[in-house]
Amino acid sequence: MSHPHAPGSAGKSRRLSPRHRVLTGISVVSILTLGLFGAEMMLGSTNSAQALRGHPEELRDGCEWDTSKYYVQNCKVWSESQKKDVIVQIRASNGSDASIYLLDGMRAGETRSAWTTDVHAARVYDTSTDVTLVMPVGGASSFYTDWDGGAGAENAVIKQETFLTEELPAYLESQFGVARDNNAIVGLSMSGGPAVTLAERHPDQFKVVQAMSGYYQTDNPIGALGIFATQTLVSNYANGIVNMWGTPGGARWTDNDPSKNVSRLAENGQVLVISSGNGFLTPTELAKLAPQDQISAIALEILSAVSTVLMQLQAKQSGVSVISLPNYGGHTWENWGRALNDGKPHVLDALRNNPPVTTKTTLVSASGSPEPEAEKKVVLAAKQAAAASPALDASVLAALESSTESSAAPETTTESAESGTTSASESAATSESAPSPDSLEESGVPASAEVSADDPTEADPPTTENPATGTTAPRDVPSAPSLAETAPTTTTPVA
User: 106: closest CA among 231, 228, 218, 220?
Assistant: First the structure.
């Protein structure tokens, strides 16, 4: 009788019968199959939770259809910096990740954007344009910036720049599939200048900016007085002159003056589309406006026209890609609806063809810490080096030529035809020389195609099918009539 722990008995007890081996194999395969199935389910649920890009007929969670139709939906977006929900009217693209932000004017309402009431932006940029329209609601007298202090008697917190460049992009990315670096921004009147400033300050977000009837030279006594007057009259923000950017003339006023920072657009390859009316009211504007409003519409647009011409010159001198749109009329939504349509091909062209602006390299000091003034120091050093760089006179050039020919060596000195500066080898060879001398294409959209607030809403087209769900929905869901069908539209002179 063998011992239970003997080698022979232990080997016999571990040996599996053919039946057991088959059952074990089946068990292993089953476990692996279940594991793979579970992993697939997890990955599938993760993908389904990702942003639904396009599908304008698909109502997002927490949103509701707007009465202006054309797939515009009203969504509440939480602003942590302002501790409140902000209504944003959004029309999704057909599948692209591009978007256009449309900012409101001085008298922006708190329930709907004027881009859906006074101008049907979703009809100008219809679904064939394949861009997401983003129309934040509110912001009256805010200048779409971050305020240093509270606004008005209620001491309201205004952090519009933070909302537009940090909080809202995150929401659009997660819910609508909008890219953070493939956007345009449009502003008018009060928001014309801030739209340019936001593009200047956030080139990685905005490729192109369109500004209509704006005011761009604000860092001066006249500009500060204009801001004070409009904020006080429209929103009773008598403290805005100090609480927004601090005391006029300070650094924050300079940082938010679009004309003083316009060179940034050139540095980043951004496009500026700009326009204003001429102050002469059209017959339809005269018919809609009361006499006192006619005076305001004329005066405000003349001031804007002067500021716009100056901005055009400043931008051109800075090397910015500027597209100036001819326009006419007063300071009214009729003017801005026309400009939105005329600027559409240029905005879409920049969105589709301009590459995203990459993040700039952060320069650091010798210790490795970020150097906040590094960019200015580098530019200054380059300018000083260019000024100190000597030029070659004729005798030196002749000597260099003869020397080159005799030695049959390749030419080593070059001179820029554009700047007149010399290469490093020339500078070294001529250290004793005298100082160097001072050195749209239209898209085919007819100009007559314009959209005004009085145009009747188009008839409902055939239904479209949702590829994701297989359901159908009319193009301009919901079926409620638009404002143009329910009530006459009034044109207000002050945005």
Answer: 231
Active site residue 331: yes
Lookup: tokens for 82: 């302002």
The CA-atom distances, in angstroms, between 462 and each of 170, 301, 337, 459, 484 are 34, 42, 27, 10, 21
Which of 55, 120, 202, 331 does the annotation list as catalytic? 331
301 catalytically annotated: yes
Contact between residue 131 and residue 344 where contact means Cβ atoms under 8 Å apart: no
DSSP assignment of 158-215, as one string?
-BHHHIIIIIHHHHHHHHH---TTSEEEEEEGGGHHHHHHHHHH-TTTEEEEEEES--
On the 0-12 / 13-18 / 19+ scale of CB atoms within 10 A, 176 is buried
pLDDT in single tens digits along all 495 residues of the chain? 444 444 444 444 456 676 666 566 666 555 655 554 454 444 443 333 468 999 999 999 999 999 999 999 999 999 999 999 999 999 999 999 999 999 999 999 999 999 999 999 999 999 999 999 999 999 999 999 999 999 999 999 999 999 999 999 999 999 999 999 999 999 999 999 999 999 999 999 999 999 999 999 999 999 999 999 999 999 999 999 999 999 999 999 999 999 999 999 999 999 999 999 999 999 999 999 999 999 999 999 999 999 999 999 999 999 999 999 999 999 999 999 999 999 999 999 999 999 998 654 445 555 555 555 555 565 555 556 555 544 444 554 455 455 544 444 444 333 333 434 333 334 333 333 333 434 333 333 333 334 444 443 443 444 444 444 444 444 444 444 343 343 344 444 456
Catalytically annotated residue among 68, 96, 189, 436 = 189
DSSP single-letter state for residue 286? H
189 included as an active-site residue:
yes
Cβ atoms within 10 Å of 210's Cβ, excluding its own: 30
Contact partners, residue 494, CB within 8 Å, separation at least 6: 105, 106, 107, 189, 234, 296, 300, 331
CA-based Rg of the chain, rounded to a whole angstrom?
Answer: 32
> What is the amino acid identity at position 270?
Q
Cβ atoms of 141 and 240 closer than 8 Å: yes
Q: Which of 401, 438, 406, 435 is nearest to 419 (CA)?
A: 438
Report the C-alpha gap between 400 and 475 in whole angstroms.
73
Strands 206-212 and 271-275, by their bridges, are parallel
230, 295, 415, 494 from 235: Cα distances, Å: 8, 21, 58, 13
Residue pair 103/133 in contact by the 8 Å Cβ criterion: no
Site of tokens 């591009």: 98
Among residues 161, 285, 301, 334, the one annotated as catalytic is 301
Matching residue, tokens 């200054």 = 380
User: Residue 354 and residue 361: Cα distance in Å, rounded?
Assistant: 20
Query: Are 90 and 135 contacting, i.e. CB atoms less than 8 angstroms apart?
Result: yes
Q: Is 485 helix (H, G, I), strand (E, B) or coil?
A: helix
